[in-house]
Every structure is written in C-alpha cells, then in structure tokens.
Amino acid sequence: MKDANSPHAAHEHQRDSFGSSFGVLVALAGSAVGLGNLWRFPYLVGENGGAAFILIYLGFVLLVGVPIMMSEFIIGRRSQANARGAFKKLAPGSLWFVSGTLAVLCCLLILSFYSVVGGWGIEYLFKAFRFDFTRGGDSAGLSTLFSDFASSTWRPLVCHTVFLLLSGLIVILGVKNGIEKFSKVMMPVLFLIIIVIAIRSLTLPGAGAGIDYLFHPDWSKVTANTYLAALGQAFFSLSLGSGMVITYGSYVSKKENITAISAKTAAADTLFALIAGCAIMPAVFAFGISPGEGPGLVFITLPHIFSQLPLGGFIAILFFVALLLAALTSSISLLEVIAAFCIEEFKMKRFWAVVLTLFVLWVLGCLCSLSQGVLADWKIFGRNFFDLFDFLSANVLMLLGGLVAVVFVGWKLGRTVIHDELTNSGTLKIPVWLLDTLLFLIRFLAPAAIAVIAIFQWV
Ligand code: PHE
Questions:
Q1: Residue to mutate, 40, 330, 361, 393, ligand 1, most ligand atoms under 8 Å from C-beta
Q2: 105 lies in which domain range?
Q3: Domain annotation covers residue 288
Q4: 29 alpha carbon – ligand 1 mean position (Å)
Q5: Which atom of ligand 1 is least distant from the CA of 34?
Q6: What is the pLDDT of residues 17-72, one digit of tens each?
Q7: Total domain count for the chain?
Q8: What is the CATH number of the domain that holds 260?
Q9: Is 119 left (phi over 0), alpha (psi -120 to 50) or beta?
C-alpha cells in the first residue's frame, strides 16, 4: 500500500497533501484560530483599552501579517518541504536553513505550554458538564478554584497528557486523513458555537457598554506598549514565524491562489477574534466586571459570568467545547511542523516521528505545568518554565522567523519568483499595482515593523 497517505510514503517521492481548496483554508484557519483568539485576544483588548487596540491590531494584520503569511506560503509551496528542508532546497549551501531549525524549536516551545493550557480547557469542560460554575460560585471562590487546580501536581498533568494524545492521534492519521478531515468538521462547528454565545451575550441587558468598549476607540489609552502587544498578538494569532505556514504551504497544490488563501485565512482569524470579543465583553460589562483581568479572564471571570447568566450552565459547556476545539486545531498544526521535520530530515516514519515528538513535548509540558506549583521557584533568567517558553517563542523566535521569511522572499528569491508563485506561473492574473504593493510590504514595511518592535522589546 504505497499511496500518498501511507505513513511509509511520506518521506519518499509522493508527499501527503491537502485534498481540496476548502481543506487548505480550514486547516490554515484552524491553526490560526486558537487559544490566541479565545484566551489571549480578549484579555489583551481588556488590558489595552478596547477599540483603539483592535484598530491597531487590524492595521498590523493587513500590512504586516498578510505579507509575512504570503512569504512563508511561497517558501513552503515552492519547495514542497518541511520548515528546514524548504530553505535547504531553495538556497542550497547557505545558512538560511538555521531559521527553519529555529522554527521547529519554536513550535516545540509553544506546544509545551499550549498543551498545558489545552489541558486546563479539558478540566474546565468537565467542570462545565458537572455544572460546577452554576452552583453559586462567587468570583473569589472561582479564583481560588483556578489557582488551586493550576498549581496542583497531578490533575493538570493528566489533562495535559490527554490533550497531547488527542493531538497526536489526529496527526498520526496524516495531512489529508487526519488534519484536513478534522478541521473540515470542527471549524464550522467552532464558528457556530461562538456565534451562538455572542448572540446570548449581545442580548443581555447592559450589553451596550461592552459593544461601546469594543468599537469606540479611546486613543488616550494608547502607548508604545499597545503597539508592541498588537504586533505580538498578530504574529501569535496568525501562527507566523513558526514554520506552520511553510509546512502547511508545502502540502498545497500549485493550482491554489496564494494571495486569496492568505487573505481569507487572515480574515477568518480576525473575524473569529472579533466575534469572540462580542461573546465575552458585553457579558463582562453587563455583570459589572472589570475587563482588564488579564490571563485569568477565561478561567476565572467567564465562569463567574456563567454562574449568573440565565442558561449559563449550557453556555459554559459550549464555551469550553469551543476552547478545546480551537486549541486542538492549532496544536495539530504545531505538532505537524515538528513531525514533518522528523519525517523528512531524519527519514522517520510518521508514526514514530509523532510518538517521539509527543514524548519530548510531554516532558517539556510537565515542566511548564509544574512551574505553576511545585516548580514555581525554578527560574531561568527570572522566569519559570511556562513564562520562559512563552517569552522565547512569542517574543523572540516567532519575530525572528517572520523577519527571515520576508527578507528571504523579498531579497533572496526576489520579484520574479514572487510573481511566478502568486500567478501560478502566469495562469492567474495579478494587477501590477497589487504586486508592487505586496513587494513593498514584504521588502520594506514588514521587516521594518518587526525590527522596531524587536528593538523596543529587547532594549
Ligand atoms: N495561532 C494559534 C492561536 O491563536 C497559535 C499558534 C501559533 C499555532 C503558532 C501554530 C503556530 O492560538
């Protein structure tokens, strides 16, 4: 049995690939839509003053995020190889491939803490099924409930393990039979759930204040930090600089339209974040809670709201199902970056590549999980494992990966290759002004924006 989906064929001539345009879109959107939208975006909006942050974020997605995504797409599709192999194929004998190796490391670090938060999602889904939140929990009680759980030793480890196993099962099935099939069913379900919750939230008495907060900018709250947070969030939410778009792009056929898919993926991700904002903020305001609660928003503030909301018990179940699905479609993409690297660079079989990766991730994830409790005092550069991995990936490696991708495509591959990839060797028409604009964004604006942010962050 040597078809393209057989694990044995993966490192031979035929590579696994996506089966349809819709499949490509839902897989990419599945990677982009994740904890970044449901957990990170709402609390960053809350901490950074609402609408003004959202507008700045939208600007970054359009002017910096989409050009980076297109550049990574070009690298992946042109090379038809994993994040490291892609650079080796397109620029043999050079050192560009180091960036691909760092991207794989970046995914390892992200997935280590991502799977811990995914595990928290599993625990909270259980609690929701037991209607724990609606049994009259007050906010102080819910806050201790969360910190007691996250800092305990065994339960979070079990949940983290289950989350990793679920992701592993999907990735072992391959790109078309695992990732694409799962995303095709789950992404529409996810959108549907979040729309239902948004409608419930928007129809609460007092929801208007939340809408106001989301859509009427207060520019006086904007500082340099707002810009930093917005660009960092654009990277994280669109899964940029992590080798994900390179890897998924390498499974995409030469007939697909890179510009259109990139724009649609960014639009789907942004739309989802905005709907999630509409699901969360009106309820936060309707119940008179402060929007700037930080990372505990999803696990403390929202359960508090569910406890008072009519039909809150059911909404809680829907919300944590959504959180888990969103986290899974992203974690499989992170896992695939590492698995593809092992399969192609070390000629491993898909099954063993995933098993090995899961094992390493499990160990790293245990460190992250325990760093919330017994290992809280183990610090490197003043940060516990969880925060260190988060910082190194989101604030260092993703920025670096994105920077290398745009510089590589803009300056090394150049205009002719970009034109060739965006028009599928002349079969698609692309207006000259659009090509020129994209070239300007890829060559100048995106690298400049990343450099400025990096300098502000690190100096
Ligand atoms: N974009 C995902 C989210 O928003 C996180 C992610 C980052 C996934 C990098 C893949 C690669 O949750």
A1: 330
A2: 23-458
A3: yes
A4: 10
A5: 12
A6: 999 999 999 999 999 999 999 888 988 888 888 899 999 999 999 999 999 999 99
A7: 1
A8: 1.20.1740
A9: alpha
